[in-house]
């Protein structure tokens, strides 16, 4: 057999094989993920939040800023009644100063000392929502807790890598929460996306916490901590995005 005939036979064989493979791949059904009932009833939100202390708490600290994550499980298919859980973190004040790394090294290597004051709000409880329309208002309530802690850490003055930290003060208190808001749908096909605007009131109990200036430096590397104590009522204003099936 000549080289030309061998080459032609090889090309024909390859063409037939490619055609068979292509037909097989196109005829094979593509597997699609079918959402489970749990997925269909679940939604989540991520929001920017601002805390606004009220009462005695307001006279001790100012506004705080942070983020909040929310999860809602629809109890009924329409989504009128749901179970909601929230967790967030807020920074309500910080201090920064530069210092030598050690007395031995002196000023050749300097570090930045950062002290931040945090609130971690948690809550769980029912939510009632109007499930259809251009604007979908909701109200929620539940049991809550507020965790307070102040943390100091050091990082290099030429980079932002923190390499040591200490918790200076921590406390927590129980609370109840009530609030409301509105979902504004932006997109609704396989997955719905909505704007989440809302506010919550935390009726916090008494707790100890710090603010900028509560830690005083003393000689011989000592410090004096002067905590504040009060009831911890506050409002949380929320702007976020809700995603759910």
How would you summarize what this structure contains?
The protein has 3 helices and 10 strands, in the order H-H-E-H-E-E-E-E-E-E-E-E-E.
Fold topology:
Blueprint: H1 3-27, H2 37-40, E1 42-53, H3 56-60, E2 64-74, E3 81-100, E4 110-129, E5 136-156, E6 162-188, E7 192-209, E8 215-218, E9 222-225, E10 228-244
Antiparallel strand pairs: 1-2, 1-10, 2-3, 3-4, 4-5, 5-6, 6-7, 7-10, 8-9
Q: How many separate helices?
A: 3
Largest sheet: 8 strands, antiparallel, barrel
Share of β-strand residues = over 45%
- The domain tally reads 1
CATH overall fold name: Porin
Name the strands of the widest sheet in spatial order. Answer: 1-2-3-4-5-6-7-10
Can you tell me about this structure?
The chain has helices spanning 3-27, 37-40, 56-60, and strands spanning 42-53, 64-74, 81-100, 110-129, 136-156, 162-188, 192-209, 215-218, 222-225, 228-244. The model has no long low-confidence stretch (mean pLDDT 86). The longest helix is centred in the first third of the chain and has 25 residues, at 3-27. The chain has an eight-stranded antiparallel beta barrel with strand order 1-2-3-4-5-6-7-10. Strands 8-9 form a two-stranded antiparallel sheet. The chain has a single domain, classed as Porin (Beta Barrel), CATH 2.40.160.20. With 245 residues, the chain is mainly β. The termini are far apart. It has three helices and ten strands; from the N terminus they run ααβαβββββββββ. The protein is elongated, with a radius of gyration of 29 Å.
């Amino acid at each position: 057999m000549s080289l030309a005939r061998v080459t032609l036979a090889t090309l024909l064989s390859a063409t037939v094989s490619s055609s068979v493979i292509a037909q097989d791949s196109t005829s094979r059904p593509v597997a699609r993920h079918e959402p489970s009932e749990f997925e269909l009833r679940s939604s989540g939100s991520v929001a920017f939040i601002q805390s606004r202390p009220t009462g005695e708490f307001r006279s001790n600290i100012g506004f705080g800023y942070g983020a909040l994550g929310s999860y809602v499980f629809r109890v009924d298919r329409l989504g009128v009644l749901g179970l909601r859980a929230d967790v967030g973190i807020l920074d309500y004040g910080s201090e920064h100063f530069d210092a030598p790394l050690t007395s031995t090294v002196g000023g050749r290597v300097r570090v930045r000392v950062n002290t931040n004051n945090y609130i971690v709000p948690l809550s769980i409880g029912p939510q009632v929502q109007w499930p259809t329309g251009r604007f979908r208002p909701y109200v929620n309530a539940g049991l809550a807790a507020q965790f307070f802690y102040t943390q100091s850490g050091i990082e290099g003055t030429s980079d932002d890598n923190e390499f040591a930290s200490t918790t200076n003060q921590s406390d927590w208190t129980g609370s109840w929460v009530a609030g409301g808001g509105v979902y504004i749908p932006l997109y609704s096909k396989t997955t719905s996306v909505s704007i989440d605007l809302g506010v919550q009131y935390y009726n916090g109990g008494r707790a100890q916490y710090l603010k900028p200036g509560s830690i005083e430096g003393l000689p011989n590397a000592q410090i004096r901590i002067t905590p504040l104590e009060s009831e911890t009522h506050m409002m949380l204003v929320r702007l976020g995005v809700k995603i759910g099936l």
